[in-house]
Amino acid sequence: MNRRGPAVFSVIVVGILLIVSAWAWIQLPADAQVPIHWGVDGQPNGYASKAVGLLLLPLTTAGVAALFWIIPTIEPRRGNILKSEKAYTVIWVGVVLLLAAMDLAAVAATMGSQLDITMLAIVGTGVLFIVIGNYLPKVRPNYMIGIRTPWTLTSDLSWDRTHRIGGRLIVLEGIAFILLGVLRPPREALAIMLIGGIAVFLVFVFAYSYRVWKTDPARRTG
What we know:
Layout: H1 4-27, E1 34-38, E2 44-48, H2 50-74, H3 78-83, H4 85-110, H5 117-135, H6 156-183, H7 187-215
Antiparallel strand pairs: 1-2
């Protein structure tokens, strides 16, 4: 599996984030409190020191990229990860880009920009969901990436069918996220719809994967 391309991309992205953080560090006073968490109303409700606030997301991005690098090495079904190389690479790059976008938005907000970080996060997550949903059916059975239930992991039929319909549902969920971010419903309703949508998706894929597993004569039960 060629991990060099997405790894180099990740290093470049993290380097840019660190440069931006260094620039913000110089601009801010030594005792500045940097927002690191925003509520559903879009207002910051959690703060940290400059060191934590400006380095948290760049280091998180680096850690996530490192995890993507390591997974193919430790995955018991490594052959299936290799068969899923294109989907794996796209998901890797998509996650890194989302984290980078959130970090840049957070730094901009720290420097006084009137950005609605919550809405940006919702729209960005929606875009990532659409990308993941399109590539999810191409992911072969493994223990690290995908819809991993006890039944998809013990039935290739359940894995294939659950990822096929799950991918479509994730795309729809992504579209819904983007619409919610653009339409800006009342914050309480927004929270209910976001959490409710994810909960319904999880319940459905668990139930569906079990139903397909029950019909698969090749399922593994040991």
